[in-house]
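Notes, p. 3: input format for complexes.
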Amino acid sequence: MKDPVTAIIRKYDNDRSQLVSILQDIQSELNYLPRTALDKVSKKMNIPQSQVYAMATFFRAFSLNERGKHIVNVCLGTACHVRGGELILDSLERQLKVKTGGTTKDLNFTLDSVNCMGCCATGPVVKIDDDYFGHMTNDKVESMLNKFRE
Ligand code: FES
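Output follows (150 residues plus FE2/S2 (inorganic) cluster):
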């Protein structure tokens, strides 16, 4: 079986200065940064484990926990908050049966919150992967999720 981590390290020629890019590529390949992958990066690139983990935990975009196929981000920035962003988040937690930061059992969704996505006029806003859903209401949550269900 092909080992994506080794292939990614090779792609960057074992260049230690490319550690962030290597971690980004691993995450986009595996959807998160498994500990086994971080350990492999440390060993193969001869970088102390502590340094690899420090980098992996420094950036919020990296996740050390298994994530769903689709990432659901609910905006809780001021403009979305005053328009009911919290209620949308509650509704998503109920529908997906996970708390914020959690991943559904079927690994289809990870639910998270963000502070402002730069489209405040359309708040409250939910982003799933690269799709934005503005003027979100509790009534629209289920049909929005259905677009990402197999
Ligand atoms: S506050 Fe939600 S997009 Fe700006």
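The chain has a mean pLDDT of 95.
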